[in-house]
Description:
By secondary structure, the chain is mainly alpha-helical. It is built from 9 helices and no strands.
Amino acid sequence: MSADPTYLPAKRKRFPVKRVTALSLFILLLIGLFFQTPLREHLQAAQQTAQRLTEFGWKGHILFSVGTLVLVLIGMPRLLFCTIGGMAFGWWLGLTYAVLATLLAYYFQFIFVRWGGKPFVEKYLKKYPLAGKYVRDEGLSAVILARQVPLPGIALNFAFGLSTVRKRDYLLGTLVGQIPEALPCALIGAGLLKTSGTSLTLTLAAAVAAFAVLWIGFHLLLRYLKKKKKHAE
């Protein structure tokens, strides 16, 4: 399954000013909601849940990782678990668990297609006709770029399974492609545990900065990979 490269929107190659702006506004909204409305009580409940998870010790880490793997495998959004992981284990450890568990879940979906799930997958993808248009057989850069498309991860995984992309490129591209959005979400999760408005604001500001820096690095990486491929040809 391969799509014409012209289907890929040119704007995806530029720095996403609108997405960074939207994330910034969302974070400002979070600050207002959690410190000026009754939703603060729900935050406290979420903090207690995260605390209970850590009280299990090493078993809590395994429980979170396995739970994330299973729930992402059945189609739940991965970014939710980045935020929960940040709340429970801190941003870097929560990020690591969520990203690796998601990678494994995505690979299971990908390999399911390669091992004979094509009939089921082709029927499923009829609900997401755009998925195939964002999947190309060009290797690592194509996988990374496709991960930025606002489509369910499971749809992209199935579409890649139908393509001829190599497993190595799929795994590495999926790992790298998760980071630009996963890291800010983990930082937000960690920030929501802060007890003061100043600490929360600083942590969430770091999330915005991380999002912007990662996107710059992300697009520089894609440019490098594209040039490398041209030289190889």
